Amino acid sequence: MASKSKERFAACLPVILHHEGGYVDHPRDPGGATNLGVTIKTLSDWLGRPATKAEVKALTVAKVEPIYRLRYWDAAGCSGYQPGADLCLFDAAVNSGVGRATGWARQVKADTAIAFVRAYCDIRLGFLKRLSTFSTFGKGWSRRVADIRAKATTMALTGMGATAPQTRATLNAEANRADTLAKRDKTAAGATGTAGAGGAVAVPAAPVEAATSWGVIALVGIVILGAVVFLVIRYRNRRDEAEALRREAALV
To answer: Residue 231: CB partners within 8 Å, gap ≥ 6?
Structure first.
């Protein structure tokens, strides 16, 4: 069991590190200075003393590997999940914390790893879209979740013994499904926006009635705008998903 867990950890870590990238210190990122996904706070906790930005910058894969293993992989119990599902949980633990990652896993009701991957990524993306920083980091988060979904699906299929042609076919089928849903959202967004802009508005005669009526009109406008924004964001998320699945299919 230990060797299997080590093997799965080794397979998943490069995927995580690819998305974490190198050194960053974005002013709107609550994590502060970060390198290879390890924040200055995490490094300080690991070292048992305050870490410096210079130490964060000097981190290497070899140095962060034990941190990822103990604080995320082991802490989230990733080894207890099937291939593919373990990657979803691992990446979410790194990106959003072990507590949230394991909490999302408990919400998933799935009988296969593929079903787990789809449901888990939907729950995770739904959470991210509700964050106040989504307007700043949302595009990157959406693409990350889409890529994790694609790679986790491949891992799940491989773990189930699927051949390369079967895996490619499934990935492309999932991409087509995402495309269909994306087009539906795009059409709905256009229809909702048109309906909101095309409605006739009668100008109220009395001052009191006018104030009330314009308030209602404004409220309706806000609701319509919110619906359009929601549909447009979901359209983009599903488009990212389709693109990631097709890229993954081309690599199989």
So the answer is: 185, 186, 188, 189, 192
Kindly compute the dihedral angle of the four CA atoms of residues 219, 222, 227, 232, in this order, to the nearest 10 degrees. 170
pLDDT in tens, 16-54: 999 998 998 877 767 789 999 999 999 999 999 999 999
Distance CA 215, CA 221 (A): 10
Domain extent listing, the chain: 1-162, 163-168+177-252
Separation between Cα atoms, residue 162 and residue 164, nearest integer Å: 7
What's the whole-model pTM score? Answer: 0.81
**Close Cβ partners of 163 (under 8 Å, ≥ 6 residues apart):** none
Structure confidence by residue, pLDDT tens digits, 207-222: 556 666 667 666 666 7
**Is residue 71 within 8 Å of 42, Cβ to Cβ?**
yes
Classify 1-162 by CATH class: mainly alpha
DSSP β-bridge partners for residue 39: 34
